[in-house]
Design goal:
single chain; 2 domains
Length: 80
């Protein structure tokens, strides 16, 4: 995921002039110290979702019993 890290003063003024409805958001963006018009902050890391009950069950089943994923999936279905 990437987002705007900073923008130049000129770019900020331009954005404020053409889209006043986003002025609060635009004002929060920092001014770049270097001579770039815009700089993106690229994280590169995708946020993980919280494991579901199914994921937790399958993981514990496979680690605890040594069964394969198919056998653990059958156990999950019979549990319900």
């Amino acid at each position: 995921m990437s987002c705007i890290k900073c923008i130049s003063e000129e770019t900020k003024d331009f954005l404020l002039s053409i889209s006043p409805e986003f002025s609060a958001t635009i004002e929060k963006i920092d001014i770049c110290d270097n001579d770039k018009e815009i700089e993106f902050d690229i994280d590169g890391k995708k946020k993980k979702r919280k494991p579901s009950a199914y994921n937790n069950f399958i993981g514990q089943c496979m680690k605890g019993t040594g069964k394969g994923i198919k056998d653990c999936a059958v156990d999950w279905r019979s549990k319900k």
